[in-house]
Amino acid sequence: MKKFKAAVIGVGFIGVAHIEALRRLGNVEVVAISDQVALKEKAEKYAIPNYYEDYKQMIDELDLDFIHICTPNNTHYPIAKYAIERNINVVLEKPMTVSVAEAKALVELAETKGVVAAINFHNRLYPACTYIKKEIEKGSYGDIFSMQGMYVQDWLFYQTDYSWRLLSKTSGKTRAVADIGSHWLDLVEYMTGHQITEVLAEFKTAYETRKKATKPLETFAKATADMTYDDIAIDTEDIAVVTFRTNKGALGNVYISQMVAGKKNSINVLLSGTKHSVTWHLEDLEHVLVGHRDEGNVIIPKDAQMMSEVKDQIDYPSGHIEGFPDAFKQAFKQIYHAAEDHTYTPLVAQFKDGLRMMILDEKIYESAKSRKWVKIDA
Ligand SMILES: NC(=O)c1ccc[n+]([C@@H]2O[C@H](COP(=O)([O-])OP(=O)(O)OC[C@H]3O[C@@H](n4cnc5c(N)ncnc54)[C@H](O)[C@@H]3O)[C@@H](O)[C@H]2O)c1
Q1: For 44-68, how does the pLDDT look when each residue is reduced to its tens digit (9 = 90+)?
Q2: Where are the strands (E) in 207-295, listed by range?
Q3: Whose C-alpha lies nearest to ligand 1, atom 24?
Q4: Which domain covers residue 190, as residue numbers?
């Protein structure tokens, strides 16, 4: 098995998950990190031999096979461009960029250079999700005619909750939609094979201003009583409701919010087919519920025998839960395999899928602003 040298740029919430998952693969050495905050401490904590404040210097000095970009959304484009121009494979966090134009440029550049270029829509890699995709391809649930669900969290519930994600200059035009809605939309298109062709969206911003702690907090950290704040005007949505139609005639809708108290990271998907319905929840991620009209409903557990079509994505026996860190491991396993074997087609999202989500994001924004249905070109 080929050995790879990787570097992670941005070691905040998700950069750490990348480091951990890469180390579990066995054939990847995380040789360097780049960050602008507590860099040396992070390198020591995670035992990374090289660390750089400037990612360009890191890319120029080290002989890297892959970089993983885990920085705020507005930095994705320049970092990915710099790496791909130097023929380095890239794993880019979602959302791909902050604009369709940037995403298109990266798709073209990656194609020209022939590098592996993946987007970390990791929810695809839960075994249950790929199992549903394979069953839909086989026609097990009939034709899917409607798709519903939500992606809800509560980490931006209080006015004092603050993050770079709240501002369009760092997040992109949308926030809840780009940050978590993109996961749901990508997942549902992945599972069903449908493409969303038309959207009608409504946005709500619960707090027009937020209180930003004068001493910055890391993502998901909690405010304390002695903190002081600056008032910051917010130009992105807390909540979005999106109704849509697909190219195969299905009707769908999704509720996206980062302000639902008690919902830490909750994804629900309900797909209705002409034979059966199928339900999946992230909070019970190892089970698929198949709904029957005339007989008892069936719960299928994550199990290499019950879900034999996706046994490549299952590393532990039935009853041993594989969750969030495992989905990252499975995604990276496929991505690095693709770098070794160019005939292998991974199920992970590619740059073209990241671009598609950027297009949807832009159209959803346009619909919310115009309060009209907006079409998406195929
Ligand atoms: N796949 C997922 O489920 C998932 C989950 C969380 C975040 N994300 C994505 O990952 C990205 C990062 O999110 P996060 O929650 O980890 O954010 P974060 O704020 O916790 O961490 C970002 C890190 O990047 C560093 N950074 C900023 N600019 C930099 C630069 N120019 N060079 C090097 N380091 C830089 C910051 O110092 C910080 O440590 C975002 O695009 C986000 O959408 C994806």
Answers
A1: 999 999 999 999 999 999 999 999 9
A2: 209-213, 229-233, 239-246, 251-257, 266-273, 277-281, 287-291
A3: 10
A4: 126-319+350-375
Query: Average pLDDT, whole number, for the chain?
Result: 96
Task: Output the CA 80–ligand 1 centroid distance in Å.
Answer: 14
Measured from the Cα of 218, ligand 1's closest atom is: 20
Contacts of 38 (CB under 8 A, 6+ apart): none
Helix axes 351-370, 100-113, angle to 10 degrees: 170
The answer to whether residue 339 sits within a structural domain is no
102 in contact with ligand 1, CB cutoff 6 A: no
Q: What's the CA-to-centroid distance between 192 and ligand 1, angstroms?
A: 30
* 91 CA from centroid of ligand 1 (Å): 13
Q: Is residue 335 part of a domain?
A: no
**Which is the closest atom of ligand 1 to the Cα of 15?**
16
Encode pLDDT of 142-192 as tens digits. Answer: 999 999 999 999 999 999 999 999 999 999 999 999 999 999 999 999 999
Query: How many residues are given for the chain?
Result: 378
Which CATH number does the domain housing residue 161 bear? Answer: 3.30.360.10
